[in-house]
Design goal:
Elements (H helix, E strand, L loop, with lengths): L3 H6 L4 E7 L3 H9 L4 E5 L7 H13 L4 E4 L5 H9 L4 E4 L5 H11 L23 H11 L1 E6 L2 H5 L1 H5 L6 E4 L1 H7 L7 H15 L2 E6 L2 H9 L4 E5 H12 L5
Parallel strand pairs: 1-2, 1-8, 2-3, 3-4, 4-5, 5-6, 6-7, 7-8
Length: about 250
Amino acid sequence: MTSLRARALAGDKLLGALLRMPAEELVEMLAVAEFDFVLIDCEHGPADITALRNHIALAAAHGVPVIVRVGENDRGQILRVLDQGAEGILAPHLDTAADAAALVDASLYPPVGNRGFATYSRAGRFGEVDPAEHLTWYLENTLVLGMIESAGGVADVEAIVATPRLDGIMVGPADLAASSGPDDQSVPDAIAAVHSALAAAGSLRMDIVGTRTAAEASFAAGADLVVYNLASSLMRHLRDLASPER
């Protein structure tokens, strides 16, 4: 099966949904609905590695790759997530090129990075995968994405996206808005600056949206991956269901 990273770099427009655990049934429903990937949130979600393993294994049974949004600067979590078979990492709060380099270093095996090497995990089929093949596959196919969520990250965006083997960026609009002050550029202008830098560098762009209309607009504007904020979308749907005329 072609990896998510290979599909994205080949130009496929990929659609996913952001889930906070526990959400095994939602993982399966997204697979049945034929989403391209699932993004599991371990930054704002509970981040229980045992539950996460179950989510990744269930998604794999349906042939759906998983990206995990990890905690900030958490090398140990990155290692455990990838050992359980996630195809991609989304790391929050890349404020500098050094942050981006540290993310790459934690996410990839040597000689590119310094991820701890093991084949006896779920990702290595419990030791049944040839070590050289395992190393090569994960070097080539691990999708490494970061989030820009501050005015400092926006200011350093060109250096961040120039980081070797960083595949792309998702802007975190909520954190960006919360952290921006009166002397910073507006949030829409900041987002536009990041997207412009991504396009110039040929890096992948991931957008987070709440509606189908917004997803279509993001793809039309140049996004390579679009992810629904499922909690927001579901709450909007539930509020609608809860308000019929009576």
